[in-house]
Design goal:
Strand order of the largest sheet: 3-4-2-5-1-6-7-8
Number of helices: 11
Number of domains: 1
CATH topology: Rossmann fold
Order of helices and strands: HHHEHEHHHEEHHEHEHEE
CATH architecture: 3-Layer(aba) Sandwich
Strand content: 15-25%
Shape: globular
């Protein structure tokens, strides 16, 4: 055998040895491999990670959602989708129209027009009921969305009306710089309606939080970030808390709910003094008795306090 033949045989043996070694250390096929592994071919340990999988769900990336019993709300007299032309639905169609006109008017005419505060002089006049109805009515609009914020941080009513447990909300955002408004928005199952609750805990310095710099930044974001969204704040009573006055100074529009035959003229005058910094104040005359004997809602258009 010549030297050349011996060299060729040596190269062939070396190549065969490399092939056997590669076979012994066979790599698990990737997901692009055409031949999938059978159950018997599965390796004892897989160390690769499929980067296409979604990250583990965390509290901040989960979709926050609550269940609203629309049939129950309908029985309580609250506007619901596909309800048809009921008396309450028609009244809130009338109430919302001028508010929507101003909400999307020229910012030079009205600043923060899409930020609407619903307030009352005293507790029990129906402001939360009107807030929910107004939000539900606006949610039926084709071109607009609505965010309902429970700003009655001392005595929140919206969870009780809509039937859900208090969750992280407005106060939590103001206390925790790591939280964003999107982290506490609650999907409701009603198209175009989202909620933000008052928060899980009450706070002794709620007024200072609402008057603080972080609240101002939040309101600027809500006013400018969502061009098609109306933001409704269900505020505390004006004459019983100080938080409502702080909010009023930053709102584009205010709706003052007045209970028929109950709220005194003096109380209304005092409440109007508390919110005189706002240039667009509107009145809802709530629980008025119509000729049929049923409760009704009156509305004072374009009332400007001076």
């Amino acid at each position: 055998m010549s030297i050349i033949e011996k060299a060729a045989n040596k190269l062939r043996k070396s190549a065969n040895a490399s092939t056997k070694q590669s076979s012994a250390n066979e790599i698990v096929p990737s997901k692009e491999s055409k031949a999938p592994l059978s159950h018997g071919d599965m390796p004892a340990k897989i160390t690769t990670i499929d980067q296409t999988l979604s990250p583990p769900a965390t509290e901040t990336n989960q979709v926050n959602q609550i269940f609203i019993d629309l049939d129950k709300l309908n029985k309580l007299g609250i506007v619901t989708p596909d309800q048809g032309k009921t008396q309450v639905a028609e009244q809130f169609r009338v109430i919302k129209r001028p508010l929507l006109t101003k909400a999307f008017a020229d910012p030079k005419t009205i600043k923060n027009g899409n930020l609407i505060m619903v307030a009352s002089s005293l507790a029990g006049e129906g402001k939360s009921f009107c807030s929910v109805n107004l939000a539900m009515s606006i949610a039926s609009e084709l071109d607009h969305r609505v965010l309902l914020i429970d700003a009655d941080v001392a005595r929140p009513s919206i969870p009780r009306i809509l039937g859900f447990e208090p969750k992280k909300g407005l106060l939590d955002i103001l206390l925790n710089k790591e939280l964003d408004i999107s982290d506490v928005m609650l999907q409701t199952g009603v198209d175009k309606l989202t909620l933000v609750s008052a928060g899980e805990e009450r706070h002794a310095h709620a007024t200072e939080l609402l008057a603080g710099h972080r609240m101002g930044l939040l309101l600027d974001e809500l006013s400018q970030r969502y061009h098609d969204r109306v933001v409704i704040f269900d505020s505390p009573p004006l004459l019983q808390t100080s938080e409502a006055r702080v909010l009023a100074a930053r709102m584009g529009q205010i709706v003052l709910v007045v209970e028929a035959e109950q709220t005194s003229q003096q109380a209304v005058k005092e409440a109007l003094k508390q919110i005189e910094s706002c240039t667009s104040i509107n009145l809802i005359y709530n629980k008025a008795r119509a000729f049929s004997g049923r409760e009704n809602y009156g509305y004072g258009y374009g009332y400007n306090y001076s």
